[in-house]
Amino acid sequence: MIRQSDSYNKILQKYDDLPKQQKKIADYIIQHFDEVVFLSITRLSNVLEVSEATIVRFAQNLGHKGFPELKKDLVKYYRDYLTPGERMKRSIEALPDDPFNFAQIVESEIQLLKSAVSTIDRGSLMRAVDAILKANNVYIFGNGGNECLANHLTFRLARFKLKVVQQSVSGKNLFEKLLSINKDDLIIDYHFYKSTIDFRRLMNVAEDKGVSVLLITDSILPPLIKKASIVLHAERGPAGRFHSQVVPIAINNAIINGVAGKLGDKAVLALSELNQMRKKFYYIDFADKSVQGEI
Amino acid sequence: MIRQSDSYNKILQKYDDLPKQQKKIADYIIQHFDEVVFLSITRLSNVLEVSEATIVRFAQNLGHKGFPELKKDLVKYYRDYLTPGERMKRSIEALPDDPFNFAQIVESEIQLLKSAVSTIDRGSLMRAVDAILKANNVYIFGNGGNECLANHLTFRLARFKLKVVQQSVSGKNLFEKLLSINKDDLIIDYHFYKSTIDFRRLMNVAEDKGVSVLLITDSILPPLIKKASIVLHAERGPAGRFHSQVVPIAINNAIINGVAGKLGDKAVLALSELNQMRKKFYYIDFADKSVQGEI
DNA sequence: ATTTAAATGAAATAAAACTTTCAAGTGAAA
DNA sequence: TTTCACTTGAAAGTTTTATTTCATTTAAAT
User: Where do the DSSP E strands lie in B48-185?
Assistant: First the structure.
């Protein structure tokens, strides 16, 4: 039999030889791993109604020097196997590094998406949608690797006949673009990783003019997010060599979905109008199928 | 503004009024929640290189009696929001068919990705990567809703110092762009749903000049895909009201990954060069951490 | 029933984790 | 430049946590 050395298996291996009270301790730990990692020996003793001395002996029977060492072991196990971040890291690292294995890449994208679910908060999403619908003009900023995100959202929102402008400029040109923005407008900015000069300029101008800012970021550092009116947190994860844009795109989809939902019939109307125009002037339907509604 | 009383928001609210060392504590806690919940004040003090006394003061400034109380609060937040079980529970609690239910949207994206795995074929992916690396110039076409895809791939490939140009034009302008393309180049085109006039023009010119075309599409209709040298099939699925770009982005990632893999050290070199430049001329690193490699 | 070895908890002891004090350092206002 | 309020770390002091000792209980073997 393979000797397993994590604390769970350590307990299992010794279990049969343990006396009554210590079995009680083992049972509780196994069943309440995620509580025990936060308990002191005193509190654990109270919860279990087993003396502290016996708990120390239990730890020593398992091969530890004392209780703190046992707890360290439990925490290690907990963090290695039971924590969301670690589990995701593991599942990504576990994949062999074959750059042509599409399944692998997709698997890691899926892990990212799954972990993203818990970092996005419904309230912020609703406020984001409201802000977009309320705004006179929406200016969407995204530079470099984020231009595609800005472009994506701009294109989709424009299809709902919202007044949306994509701004992918930096340096001095940024100032020119910012001149015409006023407080009934909304700025959407995609900004990851850390602050840039442009970002700080943008935030300062927005603050000055009283313009709301919807920030989509993976940063949770106060200096970055403090000035934004709404923050949507897009965890891009510890993806090995490069950061995937899958999660931000999913957030865009959520926004688009929300806007479509709030617009209701109006959204459908805008789209069918578009389809009419396409049919008339541009698209050729050589596949002999009628044009179908698509946002 | 609604008073948020969890420890994360407590920190955010007080953040601006905190002195230097205490900001450092706040930053660390926010970024390393799942470590801090397991640290004693002594170890935290060592990690942060901030005295224990200051950590106690930080806790008191946040309204706690002392450090143990702060930690209890952090643990509560951690267990409420960051633990796998709780996260799951929270995402399930949401209502069905709710446009603000991010979990649901993500779930459908995941389904799309899963089904995409089976439609992409490894051989085509490898040929695509080879074609990109072999090409003199790469011209990437994507209009309308696909512009973001073209942009995404262009940006990433450019970072490897490949000669890549994004072409998001239509109508007569398209012809001008096509004039300078020759048979050592590669055309990449994102084209979904059905053929357009522009698409057919592009394919005809490519055929005329003997230029290879990598087509990324969800169509399997012969007229569309017949003329392309390589086809990557991106199933966007029967997604309700609109088509998600998550799958095409994942395909982009696969291509980027493949190119990076083939380039090997050269890719790393190009990236670190970029980071050097950034460090020197553009980025401000207010978090006092060095810029890390990122594609 | 008696013996004996093992297990246990109460209490004493030791070791940490945590808090307070105080003197020195910092930086903004006078 | 000086003042003053504020921040900080070192070190002393306090509280909590963990360990050991020891007397008692338990239970298996005789």
Answer: 138-141, 164-167
Facing residue for B145 by CB, picked from A34, A155, A222: A155
Residue–nucleotide distance: B20 CA to C22 C1' (Å): 21
Q: Which residue bears the tokens 């899926």?
A: A110
Whether B75 contacts chain A with CB within 8 A: yes
In whole angstroms, C22 C1' to B63 CA is 24
CB contact under 8 A, B193 and A260: no
* Chain A residue with Cα closest to B35: A79
* Yes or no, beta carbons of A261 and B148 under 8 Å apart: no
Concatenated DSSP letters of chain A: -----SHHHHHHHHGGG--HHHHHHHHHHHHTHHHHTT--HHHHHHHHT--HHHHHHHHHHTT-SSHHHHHHHHHHHIIIIISHHHHHHHHHHTS---TT-HHHHHHHHHHHHHHHHHHS-HHHHHHHHHHHHH-SSEEEE--GGGHHHHHHHHHHHHTTT--EEEE---THHHHHHHHT--TTSEEEEE--SS-BHHHHHHHHHHHHHT-EEEEEES---HHHHTT-SEEEE---TT-SSS--SHHHHHHHHHHHHHHHHHHTHHHHHHHHHHHHHHHHHT---TTS-------
What token pair was written down for A266?
A: 């109006």
What gap in Å lies between CA B15 and CA B27, rounded to an integer? 9
Residue A34 to residue B82, Cβ atoms within 8 A: no
B124 reaches A (C-beta below 8 A): no
pLDDT digits (tens, 9 = 90+) for B140-164: 999 888 999 999 999 999 988 899 9
Q: Single out the residue of B84, B281, B89, B25 nearest to residue A81, CA to CA.
A: B84
Question: For position B150, what pLDDT does the model report?
Answer: 94
Could you write out the DSSP letters of every residue in A26-83? Answer: HHHHHHTHHHHTT--HHHHHHHHT--HHHHHHHHHHTT-SSHHHHHHHHHHHIIIIIS
Q: Express each pLDDT in A165-175 by its tens digit.
A: 998 776 667 77
Chain D footprint bases within 7 A of protein beta carbons: 6-11, 16-22, 27
Would you say B230 and B215 are in contact if contact means Cβ atoms under 8 Å apart? yes
d(CA B204, nearest CA chain A) in Å: 16
pLDDT of residue B56: 96
